[in-house]
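Internal QA ticket QA-208
Title: Verify multi-chain structure generation after dependency bump
Assignee: T.L.

Test input:
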Amino acid sequence: MAETNRSMKAAVFVEPGRIVLDERPIPEVGPGDALLRVTTTTICGTDVHILKGEYPVARGLVVGHEPVGVIAELGSGVKGYHIGQRVIAGAITPCGQCYSCLGGRQAQCGGKPMGGWRLGNTINGCQAEYVLIPDAMANLAPIPDELTDEQVLMCPDIMSTGFAGAERGGIKIGDTVAIFAQGPIGLCATVGARLCGATRIIGVDGVPERLAMSRMLGADVVINYKECDPVEAILEATDGQGVDVAIEALGTQETFENGLRVLRPGGTLSSLGVYSGKLTLPLDAFAAGLGDHRVITTLCPGGKERLRRLMNVLAGKRADLRPLVTHRFPLDRIEDAYELFANQRDGVLKVAITP
Amino acid sequence: MAETNRSMKAAVFVEPGRIVLDERPIPEVGPGDALLRVTTTTICGTDVHILKGEYPVARGLVVGHEPVGVIAELGSGVKGYHIGQRVIAGAITPCGQCYSCLGGRQAQCGGKPMGGWRLGNTINGCQAEYVLIPDAMANLAPIPDELTDEQVLMCPDIMSTGFAGAERGGIKIGDTVAIFAQGPIGLCATVGARLCGATRIIGVDGVPERLAMSRMLGADVVINYKECDPVEAILEATDGQGVDVAIEALGTQETFENGLRVLRPGGTLSSLGVYSGKLTLPLDAFAAGLGDHRVITTLCPGGKERLRRLMNVLAGKRADLRPLVTHRFPLDRIEDAYELFANQRDGVLKVAITP
Amino acid sequence: MAETNRSMKAAVFVEPGRIVLDERPIPEVGPGDALLRVTTTTICGTDVHILKGEYPVARGLVVGHEPVGVIAELGSGVKGYHIGQRVIAGAITPCGQCYSCLGGRQAQCGGKPMGGWRLGNTINGCQAEYVLIPDAMANLAPIPDELTDEQVLMCPDIMSTGFAGAERGGIKIGDTVAIFAQGPIGLCATVGARLCGATRIIGVDGVPERLAMSRMLGADVVINYKECDPVEAILEATDGQGVDVAIEALGTQETFENGLRVLRPGGTLSSLGVYSGKLTLPLDAFAAGLGDHRVITTLCPGGKERLRRLMNVLAGKRADLRPLVTHRFPLDRIEDAYELFANQRDGVLKVAITP
Amino acid sequence: MAETNRSMKAAVFVEPGRIVLDERPIPEVGPGDALLRVTTTTICGTDVHILKGEYPVARGLVVGHEPVGVIAELGSGVKGYHIGQRVIAGAITPCGQCYSCLGGRQAQCGGKPMGGWRLGNTINGCQAEYVLIPDAMANLAPIPDELTDEQVLMCPDIMSTGFAGAERGGIKIGDTVAIFAQGPIGLCATVGARLCGATRIIGVDGVPERLAMSRMLGADVVINYKECDPVEAILEATDGQGVDVAIEALGTQETFENGLRVLRPGGTLSSLGVYSGKLTLPLDAFAAGLGDHRVITTLCPGGKERLRRLMNVLAGKRADLRPLVTHRFPLDRIEDAYELFANQRDGVLKVAITP
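Actual output:
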């Protein structure tokens, strides 16, 4: 890298309530690392939790975990890539070589809860001009030429997470599925449910624009929970049978509980939300523990194989997630982007940030 | 049932080379049975094997195993249905109560190979005005009002079989899949692969019309094996990596072998064809037994839950298989239909027979 | 059946607090039923809930759901069995022919929560001289000659339930497993965990005799929760890693919560208990929903294939559950048996009742 | 490492028919490697294929892929280990970071058939005083103090392979399993089948000593194929039903075919052998492709998580494979060991080689 350019702009967590654009040194590249020049990134709901001080990270940390970029430098041990190559890395960057990773639990890398989530959490993230990707061999996924940055921008986190909600829920051909909340992750879960073969998909939210997007992306039926009791509506829509799989995509007692209340006996609640406060299982809906239910939580899967598959979905025209990008900002204006996104103003779903 | 109408027309296997329309008594209904008045049925490739004497059945048997009909009479033990109800039953009619069925192997009902295939095989079938469905409680699936007879005509056999090829192959989001032969079952496997989330589907056949249909129903790429070596073409199309899952839908050494030859290490060959003669595993493609391959054979799944799910796919507009019905005949002309279908004349895919 | 013997003794739920031995008519046999002359049965914890009025059943119901007996009469539609044959039936008696059963959810037969539990719940049970088994074809499992009544007495419920806790937990070779509560079901889960390949099994209870039994039946380590904090002890015993699978076998907030607290990220809590009151998920142990955890509840699997497999385990000398039978009573003294069992006096685990 | 000791003794493949002990330079350690001082190793059937020229490797290659040793040197990028630590590595040494590894197909590392098998195949192996382990972070598994070298000597290959035959066969509680050939791998498959819950295990071989060992390690029934037709004998022993899972552990047409011939409809043939020549599927046993059969091949799973689990099995006293070590040689006499092992003289099962 050019010596004359050793500092970069980056969005830094200063203290609860303040993420600011600042100057930071460009990271040094270790043997297993890759340095990406970030070309596009975005803001996640989790970043807003960090901003608000609801999820603790170290002060001074560069935030952001959804990088699209170009390889600027490769560590000595990183083979099979070249400088200038367009790549993405996941929000979750597993090492691939620990007991958890080798056991197929890459998101829990190192055997610690959420251990695979490093970018913008335990190491500097990608809302910056450059980002260092650890264990680059396991994490750099080349972008097919035919896909633009914005097309793949959802792959690192929300597409991977939302799809995993459908996959880990065990959705199969012929299933009826209800998805609670149709924000970016819930919408991706809707797309994922459809790709898994669900033949009846019910999207629930309280924002008409999101329900419209839900229909556009694959829901057969949408329910505005502000206009009716979604549990009653779903049971009625299923002749009282309930759904095979419910996906929770918000992280509240209400959506979690409603997910259980609409399940048929033997059904699965696939939970994606981040919960706070208390979470209670409604025993009546849960058949007092005798309903053969499954409650499954999922953290965003990472690693380059996952990203390769997700980009295949896009390249194969099985899904188009570009409509989720509703706003665009240069990195210089990321503070404005946070303001918009944190307050969910102007119908925002996802923002694209371009350094 | 009216006493004045105790005989019916039926297509009967007389001897190799001869299936003829004849008069047969209308079946007596036992406690667990249902009598259907057949409204639509079709001819299967297996029926042609019976016609040619390649698959042995008893002389005098009424053939056919794909019934769409109306309930004409119910056994004393059959609850939850009513006379006049539109229903289908599967080619496979499991009892639901034997060790195999309770163990989830309904197609192998009774623990005998293909034990679940009774209609037109071990008991009289449905190319007739009436057909008796055994174990009716497990096998009668009501047709949703919005679906016509022709829409559900593929459910009893080829849709169930073709989809099962995709399902048992373990296809998941992001997979690349090759399907060898694009006859009716291969085409249904193509649709099924897409519903399971395959993001790259390669259809192989030698008939241009079938390849065109393959594209229409979901293949991304089609290969005419008469114009190039399909193994080379598929390896080239996958950068030498091979496919995650290959589906065999014909029943020949060549398609079976080609399926193995295009598999990536760790891949699955899902086999649907009925083989005759000899079947050899090519050891080079099979990594001499060390490639972590899986070869999985599948007989059409049956039972009303399966049929319910398949009809959900149609009602949910996830697939439309009506284009497979290329020709229509009244039952009176079924001998002509056999002649056409057995010789694959006039671009025939499936025929609809209406008594 | 002999006309001279049309009444029988049976344990009847009269009102909360009262299950009494009474005279009842011997059941009439319908086409799909079998009448068993009960030779041995037992009392379940659930029966105690019924006795106490904690689980509602109709007044006048004959209780009991764990029958070992001899076929006394067969319905006209029941084939493949003979009068005098020794058989068991499960606590859960699925029909095998409804959508749930055909979909592999036999315990939720009919699509209703716990729909497969009929004996001693929605129809008369087996703490009686005779019991009617519905859907006999799906439910009568012949007892191998070499097994005694007492050897197979645990098959209908607690062995099936406990083993299912291990199976549905996905235990595999090399797993570390903790089992909370070592009553009859927890002990069977311990045996099941061992049969599934768990290589480190930790049994938790507060009763020294049960802990001793736990060791005898397969636990490697036992923890008396009255003497130490079981969560701390398990984390210490696993070098802070936690267990792969925790099995809950009691039905309390404490055991459920402790099960979650000892799970490694990506681990599974397999829940067997019947809960009352409120059930809360501890978010810290649950990684706020991001730990890739699974919580799976299981009702006793039924049907003759399940019972056949369980008896294979006994006949193959893979497990010997006879030590669980600590007390024996004639049916005439069943009220005494309830008194002993409900109060867990005298180190009772299970009682054998012989009409 | 001491500069004065830069060469070592190693068993080298010279040409077909000749593996000789020779002097070789001690390997240089790269950033991701570890150098092991080998304390114990063994000879595999595959090494004999190499010796005979039946499996091609480069002339001059150090052979052997089953290392037990002590860490002599660590690459700069290898963390969490220390010099002098007792470890094993697997026959298969996956990188953990390629698409195949991240997709759970570690044995096919790099996407090439058998790509994970590097030691003694594509890089120098461990029948030597020292061996270099690539991707050490993913492959070094510390040996628990309580286990001796000989106790863990089977973990790198035959225990992992044999167990995988049982695991990938999907064996579950109550299954009947037949295992064809009771050499070292077949014996490990027998142990693995028992650990997976098989309740009836039938071992087949032609050598009385191996059948005796089979019984000792877990078979319920043993069949000497020289004394009777094993297919007939197995069908008779299972009342004509056949087995749920057959494991092939030799690599011949006969064992492969017999495995299929004893399967019940819906059963699985789990194949471990290395085949040569031609392999034919017997269509009658295969139900012409309609039997819902599965044929699954498996290469030895590797990686430190796998090894950790296998050593758990030993430490937890679930299996004791020491009886498999029938002969011991110093490395200096490895040529004698090959002579004994290749000719299967003196009842040899496995030899321990100690440098």
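Spot checks passed. Chain B has a mean pLDDT of 97.
Status: verified.
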